[in-house]
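Design review, sub-item: ligand-bound model
Attendees: FS, YL, KQ
YL presented the inputs for the zinc ion complex:
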Amino acid sequence: MINQEKKEQIKKRLEDTKLSLEAEIKKLETPVDVGDFPGEDDNTDESTATFNQRSAAASLREVLTNTEAAISKLDKGTYGICEDCGEEISQGLLEVAPETRLCQSCNKKNVVKT
Ligand SMILES: [Zn+2]
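KQ shared the predicted structure:
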């Protein structure tokens, strides 16, 4: 069971994470100014770079969603409960990944599935 002090710590960490994720995503989603006239030749390079940035932003966004969900769960008092099986998530896992929504065994199941 997580005590109140621990919860405050985690909440602070999550809020920091949230802010830096938001900044990072904003950076990634800002179109790169290549300072060049669009030419037929470098179209591929440019769209590859944009694609990479987009997918990086998308995966960060996923972490951001989890982080926000974790913060609201802290407020509701349901933090640290696995969304899949309803078991308590181990404190060790929460230390490593405070935004996690699943316990260790459900996490494993999910990895195997995908
Ligand atoms: Zn579980």
